[in-house]
Design a protein that fits this description.
single chain; 265 residues; alpha/beta; Rossmann fold; seven-stranded parallel β-sheet; binds nicotinamide-adenine-dinucleotide
Length: 265
């Protein structure tokens, strides 16, 4: 039995999700499968990727793919449709964070961040979108960040890569939209994954770090996964080139706590 309006489901669809072995990517795989899709989960963490497949069963296959490797994308694109048929959705989710100020940042680290967070999504689009264009259907979802909407100290390379990803997404949306392929961007705020919480701190401690936000807590991977699923569904058929913040209000603006308090009574 299927649950929910058909436009909000992914029955019969095939999705490629990068960075799928853990964190938000793994949760997005689960969400897609729950909505009826089959998923090719892509990552460099083979053990975690295989474990995900075992947990979710026959609707998921894992492929080792370093998103920065163009030859690997070429081979992947050439062989993948033989398994389940053509690809309907690409979620460019793989990403890395490097913490360093603009002055401390080393060139090699900067280049690595750009390679994974910007070239990775570009290569995915370059190699999977042509078939989508031929079929005149497809949805590409790029996972940027709240750090692509505002400046953030300490993550110069990461923020630069994600701002650039927005530029790539908008351009790709304009170029691919006329042939039926939608490209959209999601901009998560702080989300409780190994990237934002590498030492596994408890949720209540993490929430305290986000006390100044409109929603004063860290986000959960499923809260981004559901947005990605929506952008893959027919229900989002008129969204093209959008940039959606899923950030608990992190990027709404500057909060001035004293402004009301300081008004003369
Ligand atoms: N967690 C957050 O607070 C947060 C906030 C905003 C945006 N994001 C973005 O969300 C996405 C998912 O992040 P996450 O929080 O789940 O992080 P994560 O570190 O838990 O997961 C990222 C995944 O990407 C994979 N990956 C890294 N380099 C790769 C490569 N070269 N090829 C293939 N796979 C690679 C990793 O192995 C890992 O499985 C990233 O793009 C990240 O920048 C995360």
């Amino acid at each position: 039995m299927t649950i929910g309006h058909a436009a909000f489901r992914l029955d019969g669809q095939v999705a490629v999700i990068t960075g799928a072995a853990r964190g938000m990517g793994a949760r997005t795989v689960e969400e897609f499968v729950a909505l009826g899709a089959r998923v090719i989960a892509v990552d460099v963490l083979d053990q975690d990727g295989q474990a995900l497949c075992q947990r979710l069963g026959e609707h998921v296959i894992f492929r080792h793919l370093d998103v920065t490797d163009e030859a690997a994308w070429h081979d992947f694109a050439a062989g993948i449709s033989a398994h389940w048929g053509p690809i309907d959705t690409l979620v460019n989710n793989a990403g890395i964070l490097h913490v360093a100020s603009a002055l401390e940042l080393e060139r090699e680290a900067f280049e690595r961040v750009i390679a994974v967070n910007l070239y990775g999504p570009w290569l995915g689009i370059k190699h999977l979108a042509p078939d989508m264009q031929r079929r005149r259907r497809g949805s590409i979802i790029n996972v940027a960040s709240a750090a692509a909407l505002v400046g953030m100290n300490g993550i110069a390379a990461y923020s630069a890569s994600k701002w650039a990803l927005r530029g790539l997404s908008r351009t790709a949306a304009m170029e691919l939209g006329p042939s039926g392929v939608r490209v959209n961007t999601v901009c998560p705020g702080g989300i409780d994954t190994p990237m934002a919480n590498p030492t596994g701190r408890p949720r209540d401690q993490l929430d305290a770090d986000y006390a100044g936000q409109a929603l004063p807590r860290i986000g959960r991977p499923e809260e981004v996964a559901r947005l990605c699923a929506f952008l893959a569904c027919e229900a989002s058929s008129y969204l093209c080139g959008s940039e959606i913040a899923v950030d608990g209000g992190m990027t709404l603006g500057t909060r001035i706590d004293h402004i009301l308090r300081d008004q003369p009574k």
